[in-house]
Write a structure and sequence with these properties.
By secondary structure, the chain is of the alpha/beta class. It contains 16 helices and 26 strands.
Length: 613
């Protein structure tokens, strides 16, 4: 009787277990791991893995060869966060991770790779460089086969003002020789991550942080671009976004944690564009919190970098791309909208790993004092060091643009330079006249090429790291709205009526400006005084602005006449250097100019001259 009862109970237990597995099916799976690999010998050797899959709550993880740290189980069964600690001498290879839950288990493979130790990678950028800003969708379509890849969320027709146009990584590869010959040294490329959004061409609302959008190419092709650029002496600067992602990212519908974002799609703060909130000594903390928690737009969910797991993810993601691609620098988007303590830690982690690297932050404010406080080692009191080496010089940009539009003068430009004492490193400011977010320079100048040449001369011969926007060298003049500012580079797309990538294909007007810009770029490259030399300037007077550039035995004087009349300039008004100088060499015309007995020289109206003496 006892044996019979035991058999009945055993049968009941088996039946109950079968019923349980029907009610609670065992669907343990891991479909993706981020970061997808790591490298031997990294200073960051404690890595937080994000496991994507199903039924990942209450799991345990072990590895025969890896040190498994904390396993952070989430309420959302689609994720688990696992910490791995790598030994310094870990051998490159494929390592097994055993994931177990109750009686279910699976083995996943995790690669540890050997680092690239080439001297041509991670070089940083500095004031000896000139940056060329490329908006890839509008630069060159090098691969027609990816033009028609579908994005179910796209709301704009291909080729329309706000639609995709087909520019891609292969197109940039195809134009590396053009860029090399032009004379630039570094390429800042706007984001190319997967961007399955209603307006996808601009790239600033990523929906996958570890993969390049197939309409641009692939991770492997981006790496090929970097390698080819390096082989031609060109550096690559990647555009990175810590502040937000696109609303169609997997996280938004299935957040890894309840506080992965600042709010939800249904309930969040609107954008608060107070870029002074963090540095304002009279400001209230609520103003700062509104700025860092507000969503830039409703379709760009704001990441909560104060969550240490989010911060770890973003830091690792940036280092992963830097190591994988071998890039030389980063431009950080919407810098002043992020949690500033996170950004300090983020920048430090990157620079600890890559000591020759450079990072430039976008703080869209045209006042040197405000910009200076964001730069590393600021003279102004802060609770902590920003660790940010470079900022974009919106102050100089505003002054140059006000000159172009006719609302300002050389005095505005002079005063911006005169305030350089507020910066810890004014040479490490990225200077520019236009970019992908603002009206093009020639649009502001209402087509006045002479004014544009003056602005570009100042940009390329004064202090800082100049940045040119693609097409400025041929006089592209879009404005009024983003789609026109980011117009196609002529010659980069099927059915273009002309090809501005070649001398033969450019118009006379385009060649005139191209030759001028290219001449300045090569002069800057050949003469260190024009790039890294000491700048000595003088107050503008009667439409004349003068400054000297000096480096070792190189001496230059830049004289700019903004008036509508030829002006006689007395050189002895600009220091003692010219008492015994009888000739100047005009670098732009390649001519020697004799100075008269009173040490004066005539400068044509609306003209910039660069002389060597």
């Amino acid at each position: 009787m006892k044996i019979k009862t035991q058999k009945v109970l055993a049968a009941f237990h088996i039946l109950f277990f079968l019923l349980l597995t029907q009610i609670f099916p065992q669907n343990l799976s891991v479909t993706k791991i981020e970061p997808p690999n790591w490298w031997r010998g990294m200073k960051l050797n404690k890595v937080q893995l994000m496991l994507y899959g199903t039924d990942l709550d209450s799991i345990s993880i072990r590895s025969p060869n890896l040190n498994i740290g904390e396993v952070n189980l989430q309420k959302n069964k689609n994720y688990s966060l696992v910490t791995l600690q790598f030994a310094e001498n870990i051998a490159p290879g494929i390592y097994n991770l055993i994931v177990k839950k109750r009686n279910d288990s699976l083995s996943i493979k995790y690669p540890i790779l050997k680092r690239d130790t080439s001297k041509w990678i991670h070089r940083g950028f500095n004031d000896s460089d000139v940056i060329y800003l490329i908006f890839p969708d509008r630069f060159d379509d090098g691969d027609y086969s990816n033009d028609t890849l579908k994005n179910k969320f796209e709301q704009f027709k291909f080729g329309s003002l706000n639609g995709r146009h087909g520019g891609d990584i292969q197109g940039i590869i195809n134009r590396l020789d053009y860029l090399k010959n032009l004379g630039v040294t570094s390429l800042w490329i706007t984001p190319m991550l997967v961007n399955n959004m209603w307006m996808s061409y601009h790239g600033y609302a990523a929906t996958d942080l570890y993969n390049i959008d197939p309409r641009f190419g692939s991770n492997q092709l981006y790496k090929k671009l970097v390698n080819l650029a390096h082989s031609k002496g060109l550096k690559i600067i990647m555009d990175h976004v810590s502040n937000h992602i696109g609303v169609n990212h997997h996280w938004v519908k299935y957040p890894p944690m309840p506080d992965w974002f600042n709010g939800t799609v249904q309930n969040h703060l609107p954008a608060h564009h107070d870029k002074l909130a963090f540095i304002d000594i009279h400001g209230d903390s609520t103003t700062y919190l509104k700025t860092i928690k507000g969503w830039f737009t409703d379709y760009m969910p704001d990441l909560k970098q104060a969550n240490p797991f989010v911060a770890n993810y973003l830091i690792q993601n940036t280092i992963w791309w830097t190591e994988y691609l071998g890039i030389d620098g980063i431009r950080e988007d919407t810098y002043s909208y992020c949690d500033q303590k996170y950004l300090s830690n983020w920048a430090k982690a990157i620079l600890d790993e890559y000591p020759h690297f450079n990072i430039a932050g976008e703080i869209w404010k045209g006042d040197p004092a405000f910009l200076a406080k964001y730069q590393r080692d600021s003279f102004f009191p802060r609770k902590f060091n920003s660790n940010l080496p470079a900022v974009f010089d919106f102050a100089l940009s505003d002054a140059l643009r006000s000159y172009l539009s006719g609302t300002g003068s050389f005095q505005n430009i002079y005063e911006v330079f005169a305030k350089d004492f507020v910066y810890s490193n004014p040479e490490n400011l990225v200077t520019f006249v236009d970019n992908h977010d603002i009206d093009r320079a020639l649009y502001l100048a209402k087509g006045n090429i002479k004014k544009l040449k003056i602005a570009l001369t100042i940009l390329l011969t004064s202090r800082g790291i100049p940045q040119l926007f693609y097409g400025t060298e041929i006089g592209m003049d879009g404005g009024g709205e983003h789609g026109k500012i980011r117009a196609q580079f002529p010659g980069g797309f099927p059915n273009d009526s002309l090809n501005a990538f070649t001398e033969e294909g450019r118009t006379e007007k385009q060649n005139n400006l191209y030759n001028f810009v290219s001449k300045l770029l090569h002069l800057r490259k050949n003469y260190k005084a024009l790039s890294i030399g000491k700048m000595i300037h003088f107050p503008p007077k009667d439409g004349i602005y003068v400054y000297l550039k000096k480096y070792k035995d190189e001496n230059f004087i830049v004289i700019i006449n903004s008036s509508d009349k030829t002006k006689k300039v007395l050189l002895t008004d600009y220091g003692n250097d010219f008492a015994n100088v009888n000739n100047l060499y005009d670098l732009l015309s390649d001519k020697t100019v004799k100075i008269d007995y009173v040490k004066s020289i005539n400068i044509p109206n609306s003209f910039a001259k660069v002389y060597k003496y």
